[in-house]
Amino acid sequence: MIIDTHIHLDNEQYYDDLEEVLERAKEGGVQRFIIPGADPKDLERARELAHTHDEIYFAVGMHPYDMLHFNEALIREYAQDDKCVAIGECGLDYFRLPEDEAAKEEEIRLQKEVFMAHIQLANELNMPLIVHIRNASHDARLILQEHSLTGGVLHCYNADDELLALAEKGFYFGIGGVLTFKNARKLVEVLPKIPKEKLLIETDGPYLTPHPHRGTRNEPFYTTLVADKMAELLALPLDEIRCLTTHNAEKLFALDI
């Protein structure tokens, strides 16, 4: 079995054929799915999908790009749902900061403030975090090491060695289609350094489609390609990778086994 720990099934790209997408995934051994909360406008659809499909779970949070929509009361409401398994995705993303220095500093300040608010909620509610980090590894590591009590997953792990220290803080590492890219040398090199009991598999669909399907919509079935590549690089049997990552996901997100 494989669990896709980060898949935006609430995205409009799945509106027309969601059941077919799920059926293909199940035929490939992908049995459960976690929808991360990223855009507030999609939260209700994520919750609805979780309640109409036993195999789907969801998380609640606001992506750094949506930080201005942060609503603590809304997150608290959704977090009480039985199918909600995490807070996030949340984090820091410095990829598109303003060029003006004062505006840049203000955006970084706001991102950190909203990130901290997510962390405080996760700590209070005793829920894991789904963390998005882009071009902000150092700041994110310092914040998580100092403030996170619950751990979580570094979604779409960016292969930064600095973040490996977070394994000791209860963080897992989400590995997706990037592992199959021909230019993913850094992630290929870092993968063996990640404790095996901290590995998770994800798609981030509909984005980051693995080779050889790049340029098309990503979907949960393609986690099988990630598992294949992980098994190859770690020189482990494919069944072991599937069982290992499934157990890790069940443990982190407290999924019914």
Structure description:
With 257 residues, the protein is of the alpha/beta class. The chain has a single domain (2-253), classed as Metal-dependent hydrolases (TIM Barrel), CATH 3.20.20. The chain has helices at residues 18-27, 43-52, 72-79, 101-125, 137-147, 185-190, 223-234, 238-253; strands at 2-4, 30-35, 56-60, 84-93, 129-134, 152-155, 171-175, 199-201. Strand 2, helix 2 and strand 3 form a beta-alpha-beta unit. The longest helix is centred in the middle third of the chain and has 25 residues, at 101-125. The radius of gyration is 17 Å and the shape is globular. It starts with a strand and ends with a helix. The mean pLDDT is 96.
What's the short version?
This protein is an alpha/beta fold. It has eight helices and eight strands; from the N terminus they run E-H-E-H-E-H-E-H-E-H-E-E-H-E-H-H.
Record the SSE blueprint.
Blueprint: E1 2-4, H1 18-27, E2 30-35, H2 43-52, E3 56-60, H3 72-79, E4 84-93, H4 101-125, E5 129-134, H5 137-147, E6 152-155, E7 171-175, H6 185-190, E8 199-201, H7 223-234, H8 238-253
Parallel strand pairs: 1-2, 2-3, 3-4, 4-5, 5-6, 6-7, 7-8
